[in-house]
Design brief:
The structure is a single chain. The protein is 34% helix and 28% strand. By secondary structure, the chain is an alpha+beta fold. The chain has a four-stranded antiparallel sheet with strand order 2-1-5-6, covered by helices on one side. It has a two-stranded antiparallel sheet with strand order 3-4. A hairpin with a 4-residue loop joins strand 5 and strand 6.
Length: 134
């Protein structure tokens, strides 16, 4: 069976379990020989690829731009399945990225603009200055 078709079949089975988010997967990147893994959400499955979005200024975005080798791992306990994917990623078009961003809830858009993703927050005073703590 075509691996993309097999993935879609398992993904559709996992979506029936409402207690999990089947789009969540662990994304692995490497920057300066240091691996990093974090959870992200799958947004689209297209022929020959899986699409997720991230801020290119984040650690994962910077890692990807220097080393496009990615690793993805989906784990769906309810159907006793795990899918691991390794390969080279590529950027989606600016148009596709802008289209996705424009469809996000307004609060998510504002949060993305306001946050400095993957940067360390030095202290609570920093958050107070940003009006994130009342």
């Amino acid at each position: 069976m075509n691996p993309f078709n097999k993935f879609k079949n398992w993904f559709n089975l996992a979506k029936k379990d409402k207690s999990i988010d089947p789009t969540a997967f662990a994304l692995g990147t490497v920057l300066n020989n240091s691996p990093n893994i974090r959870m992200v959400l799958l947004k689209y499955i297209k022929p020959g690829g899986f699409i997720f979005f991230t801020n290119l200024n984040s650690l994962k975005g910077r890692s990807f731009q220097k080393n496009p080798n990615l690793s993805m791992c989906f784990y769906w306990e309810s159907i006793n399945r795990q899918v691991r994917i390794n390969g080279k990623g590529k950027l989606v078009s600016e148009k596709d990225s802008d289209n996705y961003f424009s469809k996000r809830p307004r609060g998510s858009q504002i949060g993305a603009w306001a946050s400095n993703q993957s940067s360390e927050i030095p202290n609570s005073s920093y958050l107070k200055k940003k009006n994130f703590i009342l």
